[in-house]
């Protein structure tokens, strides 16, 4: 059993929303309310021997009350995630036992967390009893006792965000049906957009019902096309779901959501999550203390030594290279030309591709005719649907903010995020390359007309080098003709490239893939330092972020979007198209910052080298550098710490569950009907 920090899942909310309403599901009996409120398990760790007279926790025994798992909770969890177990091959009986165990373990951990916090000295039994005395809702008051004012505010904020997001989802269906058409096939967006800062809290944040104004709800942003009418419809549908699930009491005043008993029930769950997070913080602090400088240095060296031995097997190394990430590192490479490239594909048109596919000439003749078609390849900005999709991602750039002074940028919240902002800054994406084309917006129709500009491969090279320069990175290169940097003007060299004969593509009767190289350049990132690849603001990261953004703008090889460093490049022959493979290897051989341009049957490939294993052990671990965000030492430390914390936390949770498992009473007969589902199938 494992719980995650920053969790914000409310069980009863899932019950209200999953598959519409529970009342229409086969899981519910005719006497719905009575059936749902049956207690299927009781948890009370104060029955444990440590709470008995003379036990270590005797003085806390009176503050631990019985916690009940209701049949409603089982159903809610099943509708939220249970079908995953069924699809995985588990029976209904096994699935409901798993769910029951998970809910019981959560109750145990919450009770244990109270004791844990007592033991830290900040809280005590007397303070708890004073906090709950005379309260209308002693359970909620008891949970609130273990939270600071800021922690309570954060729990409430997180809950309100969940509720608003839920109503937003319902409202979008009304807006879509009534007010707006949008493109459903949306261009892939960068990983990390609109990622909320887990520590952010807006105390002025409110639930938007349609009767109040979004401007009075703090940092809440209404969905695109929202009106008071569509919001009221969505809010009323949400209330109807609550009522259908017996979560809305008769006669309750629904004008202010926060006054509903249902909200208080959800707030209890939110407070429980916050207390579990404090327990997790305690576990983390204990585990983190073991990640000493000596331990980390030894672990790094052991991992490096292990990889040196393991990667004697070429296939093992290349598998690891493909699986590298910011938490899984390839610290060593065998001798050879290994690295990573971002590939940007500017494609042939459908008509051109068809002509290439049906060309019946010799290989050399095909190369010649393809070269002639390459002159007419026109690329376009692929980000149209970031305007016309369900969510409008665009915003108007301020003067001098965007490259070439163009008008529309994207992801304002993430691009402009600063310390203390609601959102995290978007990483590895420079964010100043505005849409390349014309954009018109009809305010009355609420509709965009977006027309991309067409650019040639030479235009793209100019965009790449110009945008790098805009970002403060100088870059330049040379055109190639017949496999070597040509002499004369750029136009003469390009003309010679396109004028190659069939024989020009061969050397000693073998295809000479160097003859396909059209351009090679390099961004001035200074001396390559593998430790700084992901350090925002470093030259190497800035250049990579620029190219990554251009990939999102123009690349039609969508499999290459949101990859770690791009495609891994082997020193050996691969299954890649040979022209592509040669140009990729050339980029890696040129070192980080090198970019090459070459064709294949798919169109033009622009490849930018993000990482090179020219040094067999490119990384160094420096404990003094673990707090510099994005540095290798920082990422390595965080990965090791996360693994250590997860292992320790899991072990501690298992220990708690094993210690107090005897303090649980289960009434299996009360959910036997659920376990019997599917028996007749």
Secondary structure blueprint with pairings:
Layout (H helix, E strand, L loop, with lengths): L10 H7 L14 H5 L2 E5 L23 E4 H17 L4 H28 L5 H8 L5 H8 L3 H30 L49 H17 L16 H28 L4 H18 L3 H9 L16 E9 L2 H8 L5 H12 L4 E2 L4 H4 L5 E3 L11 E3 L1 H4 L21 E6 L4 E6 L1 E2 L1 H14 L4 E7 L2 E2 L4 H9 L7 E2 L2 E2 L7 E5 L15 H16 L12 E3 L8 H13 L3 E7 L2 E10 L19 H29 L3 E3 L5 H4 L6
Helix pairs in contact: 1-3, 3-4, 4-9, 4-20, 5-6, 6-9, 7-8, 7-9, 9-20
Walkthrough of the structure:
The chain has 21 helices and 18 strands. A seven-stranded antiparallel sheet has the order 11-10-14-16-17-3-15, with helices on both faces. Strands 2-1-18 form a three-stranded antiparallel sheet. Helix 5 packs antiparallel against helix 6 and helix 7 (149-178) crosses helix 9. The chain is globular, with a radius of gyration of 30 Å. It has 681 residues and is α+β, with helices and mostly antiparallel strands. It has helices at residues 11-17, 32-36, 71-87, 92-119, 125-132, 138-145, 149-178, 228-244, 261-288, 293-310, 314-322, 350-357, 363-374, 385-388, 412-415, 457-470, 490-498, 539-554, 578-590, 632-660, 672-675, and strands at residues 39-43, 67-70, 339-347, 379-380, 394-396, 408-410, 437-442, 447-452, 454-455, 475-481, 484-485, 506-507, 510-511, 519-523, 567-569, 594-600, 603-612, 664-666.
């Amino acid at each position: 059993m494992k719980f995650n920090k920053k969790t914000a899942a409310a069980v009863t909310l899932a019950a209200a929303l999953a598959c519409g309403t529970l009342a229409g599901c086969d899981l519910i009996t005719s006497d719905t309310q009575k059936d749902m409120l049956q207690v299927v398990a009781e948890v009370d760790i104060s029955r444990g021997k440590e709470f008995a007279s003379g036990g270590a926790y005797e003085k806390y025994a009176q503050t631990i009350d019985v916690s009940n798992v209701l049949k409603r909770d089982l159903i809610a969890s099943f509708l939220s995630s249970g079908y995953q177990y069924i699809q995985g091959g588990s029976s209904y009986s096994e699935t409901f036992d798993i769910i029951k165990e998970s809910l019981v373990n959560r109750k145990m951990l919450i009770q244990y967390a109270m004791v844990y916090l007592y033991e830290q000295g900040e809280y005590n039994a007397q303070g708890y009893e004073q906090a709950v005395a005379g309260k209308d809702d002693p359970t909620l008051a008891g949970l609130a006792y273990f939270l600071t004012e800021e922690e309570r505010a954060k729990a409430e904020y997180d809950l309100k965000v969940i509720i608003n997001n839920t109503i937003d989802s319902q409202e979008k269906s009304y807006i879509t049906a009534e007010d707006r058409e949008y493109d459903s096939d949306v261009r892939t967006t960068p990983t990390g957009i609109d990622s909320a800062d887990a520590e952010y809290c807006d105390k002025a944040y409110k639930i938007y019902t349609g009767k109040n104004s979004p401007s009075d709800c703090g940092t809440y942003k209404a969905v695109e096309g929202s009106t008071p009418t569509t919001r009221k419809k969505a809010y009323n549908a949400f209330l109807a779901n609550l009522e259908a699930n017996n979560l809305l009491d008769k006669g309750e005043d629904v004008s202010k959501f926060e006054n509903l008993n249902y909200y208080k029930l959800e707030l209890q769950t939110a407070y429980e999550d916050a207390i579990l997070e404090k327990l997790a913080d305690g576990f983390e602090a204990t585990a983190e203390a073991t990640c000493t400088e000596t331990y980390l240095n030894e672990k790094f060296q052991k991992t490096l030594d292990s990889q040196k031995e393991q990667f004697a097997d070429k296939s093992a190394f290349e598998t690891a290279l493909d699986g590298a990430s910011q938490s899984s590192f390839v610290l060593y490479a065998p001798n050879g030309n290994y690295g990573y490239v971002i590939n940007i594909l500017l494609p042939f048109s459908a008509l051109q591709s068809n002509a290439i596919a049906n060309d019946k000439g010799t290989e050399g003749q095909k190369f010649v005719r393809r070269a002639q078609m390459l002159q007419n390849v026109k690329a376009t900005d692929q980000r149209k649907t970031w305007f016309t999709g369900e969510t409008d991602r665009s915003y108007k750039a301020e003067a001098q903010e965007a490259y070439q002074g163009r008008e529309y940028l994207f992801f304002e919240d993430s691009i402009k995020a600063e310390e203390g902002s609601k959102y995290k800054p978007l990483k590895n994406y420079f964010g100043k390359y505005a849409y390349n084309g014309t954009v018109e917006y009809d305010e009355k129709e609420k509709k965009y007309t977006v027309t991309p500009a067409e650019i040639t491969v030479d235009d793209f090279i100019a965009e790449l080098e110009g945008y790098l320069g805009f970002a403060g990175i100088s870059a330049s290169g040379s055109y190639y003709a017949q496999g070597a940097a040509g002499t004369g003007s750029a136009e003469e060299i390009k003309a010679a490239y396109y004028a190659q004969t069939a024989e020009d593509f061969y050397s000693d009767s073998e295809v000479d893939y160097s003859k396909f190289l059209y351009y090679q350049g390099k961004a001035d990132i200074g001396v390559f330092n593998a430790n700084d690849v992901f350090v925002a603001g470093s030259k190497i990261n800035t250049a990579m972020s620029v190219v990554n953004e251009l990939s999102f703008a123009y690349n039609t090889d969508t499999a290459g979007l949101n990859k770690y460093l791009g495609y891994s490049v082997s020193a050996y022959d691969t299954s890649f198209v040979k022209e592509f493979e040669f140009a990729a290897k050339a980029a890696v051989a040129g070192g980080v910052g090198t970019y090459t341009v070459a064709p294949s049957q798919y169109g033009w490939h622009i490849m930018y080298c993000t990482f090179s294993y020219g040094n067999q052990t490119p990384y160094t671990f420096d404990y003094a550098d673990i707090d510099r965000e994005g540095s290798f030492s920082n990422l390595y430390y965080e990965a090791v710490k996360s693994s250590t914390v997860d292992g320790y936390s899991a072990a501690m949770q298992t220990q708690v569950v094993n210690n107090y498992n005897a303090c649980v009473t289960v009434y299996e007969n009360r959910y036997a009907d659920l376990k019997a589902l599917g028996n007749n199938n």
